[in-house]
Amino acid sequence: MKKYLITLLLLFLCTISIHAQKDSIITRSTLYGIGHTNLLDTYLSPMEYTGPELRILRESMRMTKYLEGKVSRQSLFQANVTMTENKAGTGSEFAFLANWNLAYHYQFPINENLKLLAGPNLDLNGGMIYNFRNSNNPVNAKVYANLGASGMAIYHFKVKEHPFILRYQMNVPLIGLMFSPEYGQPYYEMSISHNWGKNLCFTSLHNQPALRQLLTLDFPIRKSNLRIGYICDIQQAKVNHLKSHMWSHAFMIGFVKHFHLVNPYK
Q: What do you get for the CA distance between the two ends of the chain, in Å?
């Protein structure tokens, strides 16, 4: 199963690297935000840690020529850092997580103002958690990849002739691979034994019930387009007898730009 999943991921990457596109409008945005994180990693500590987080999100979206030009391509990168403390105030943890998500959505127009989008997505994640109290095993790496489903609703409306765009997106991982040490296993033991079989775990909805949600509103400010948003990022897993979660809520703000993309190979 793991070999099959790795092959599937490689085929997906090869496919997206040679995808064709037509002349279209490309939309890019950069958002910055602040929020709150609830953190748990039983490899480092049985206690929950909470604290503020900083987050950045960059998105690029455009139409392709797949299925008669009804498929859009979305590339989304985000990274967040957080400094947390336990409830007793006796310890703290620092966490960093970066995520790159690539999705292809088939667009279903409902009417002139509303359209629904759905399709597959590739989700790559990397980061770490550092516990300041631990002298032995103070760090745990976070590395995992998923194939999942992505859905979106986009609604256009006007307020006093000013255009607004309201959007909701949801990404759910379905199958994937995750690196995880075993309970009590030090990292130097893995590097010496080179036995990575038990540290590369198959994941699905039964042991990684994760969810990413994004709600945004675009509106004009003079000659610019402002975007405000809210992210609910629920990352959690139970592998190798270890539980972990990173529950984040963040409010975002930034700008949106639109470019006309010309295909030079037409």
A: 41
